[in-house]
């Protein structure tokens, strides 16, 4: 036998490796593929099952809790008295849904158009947060968009429209991405129209407006305009079963999972979500999808933990 083709580890193995022959490559690939024959052969859902998973993925109901009542009380008072303020929250999805619900209860539309008066306006700021974005976003909510590269025209149109709709409360969500110029403009809108402007965002909003920060003297007037604040809390453990129950109602299965009724499961979901709505709904969707894939499995704490898999915990305290 030719010494050059001895298997590794045999005596007299040559010190220099020979170039692999084409036959060697084919044999190596075949041997390698033996261990991965199951790749791509995972269990597939039926079209009906996949459609149900996708439907469940869209279910994110607003569930009014005590934290929302506290927020609405604060918003009502600020609106009535023309007070500017901030709303700070870590639970971003929860705050967004709460603010939208509040706005819908105070502002009516007919055929897509706002009905005058429209006392409450809600705007979500996009990533740039520029002055132009602010004006355009307000116009779009009022179903009266006005696009112009000239800021004086945008400013005049925005002020005129807000006044004509008799707006009393202007809510700006994602305010922590606003530019300095946009903050100044909102301060001026509040002064010129004598209305309440409420900035909503993450705790970073306070850091932005902190006049004691490095080179933050220019924020003093903005800080002094938005002195009042309200902390929108995360979902407490006592309210968590209520949210889970309402979510299951929206799912509408004839045989509900009844996750809300099992204290151990609620404790798992509480720990996994840390009281944040987005994390909770993501976890509930994972459980529902797992149940679709394992229809005979019981909804116990062990299986729920299996369905959730491994995950980082959201940050709820700073």
Q: What is the strand and helix layout of this fold?
A:
Elements: H1 22-33, H2 47-56, H3 66-81, E1 85-89, H4 92-106, E2 109-110, E3 113-114, E4 120-124, H5 131-141, H6 151-164, E5 169-173, H7 180-193, E6 196-201, H8 204-209, H9 220-225, E7 228-232, H10 240-251, H11 263-273, H12 277-293, H13 301-308
Number of domains: 2
Percent range for β-strand residues: 5-15%
Helix-strand pattern? HHHEHEEEHHEHEHHEHHHH
Give the strand order of the largest sheet, numbering strands 1, 2, ... along the chain. 4-5-6-1-7
What is the β-strand count? Answer: 7
| CATH-level-4 superfamily name of the largest domain | P-loop containing nucleotide triphosphate hydrolases
Architecture of the largest domain, according to CATH? 3-Layer(aba) Sandwich
Poorly predicted segments = 1-34
Using the coordinates shown, work out and report the CATH topology of the largest domain: Rossmann fold
The residue-averaged pLDDT reads 87
Could you say which structural class the secondary elements and strand pairing correspond to? alpha/beta
Kindly provide the name of the CATH class of the largest domain.
Answer: Alpha Beta
Broad shape: elongated
Distance between the termini: 72 Å
Radius of gyration: 29 Å
Helical residue percent? Answer: 40-55%
Task: Give me the number of helical elements.
Answer: 13
Q: Largest beta sheet, briefly?
A: 5 strands, parallel
């Amino acid at each position: 036998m030719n010494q050059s083709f001895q298997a590794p580890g045999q005596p007299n193995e040559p010190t220099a490796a020979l170039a692999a022959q084409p036959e060697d490559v084919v044999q190596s690939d075949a041997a390698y593929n033996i261990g991965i024959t199951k790749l791509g052969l995972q269990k597939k859902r039926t079209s009906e099952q996949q459609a149900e998973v996708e439907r469940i993925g869209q279910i994110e109901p607003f569930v009014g809790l005590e934290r929302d009542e506290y927020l609405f009380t604060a918003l009502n008072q600020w609106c009535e008295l023309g007070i500017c303020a901030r709303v700070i929250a870590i639970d971003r999805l929860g705050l967004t849904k709460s603010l939208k619900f509040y706005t819908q209860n105070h502002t009516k539309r007919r055929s897509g158009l706002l009905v005058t008066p429209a006392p409450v306006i809600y705007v979500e700021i996009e990533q740039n947060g520029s002055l132009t974005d602010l004006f355009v976003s307000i116009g779009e909510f009022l179903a009266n968009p006005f696009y112009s590269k000239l800021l004086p025209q945008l400013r005049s149109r925005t002020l005129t429209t807000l006044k004509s709709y008799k707006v009393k409360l202007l809510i700006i969500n994602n305010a922590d991405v606003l530019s300095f110029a946009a903050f100044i403009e909102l301060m001026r809108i509040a002064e010129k129209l004598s209305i309440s402007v409420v900035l909503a965002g993450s705790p970073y909003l306070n850091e932005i407006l902190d006049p004691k920060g490095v080179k933050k003297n220019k924020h003093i007037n903005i800080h002094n305009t938005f002195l009042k604040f309200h902390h929108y809390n995360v979902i407490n453990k006592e309210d968590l079963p209520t949210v889970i129950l309402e979510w299951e109602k929206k799912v509408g299965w004839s045989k509900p999972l009844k996750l809300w009724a099992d204290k151990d499961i609620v404790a798992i979901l509480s720990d996994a979500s840390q009281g944040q709505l987005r994390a909770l709904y993501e976890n509930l969707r994972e459980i529902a999808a797992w149940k679709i894939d394992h229809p005979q499995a019981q909804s116990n704490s062990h299986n729920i933990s299996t369905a959730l898999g491994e995950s980082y915990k959201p940050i709820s305290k700073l």
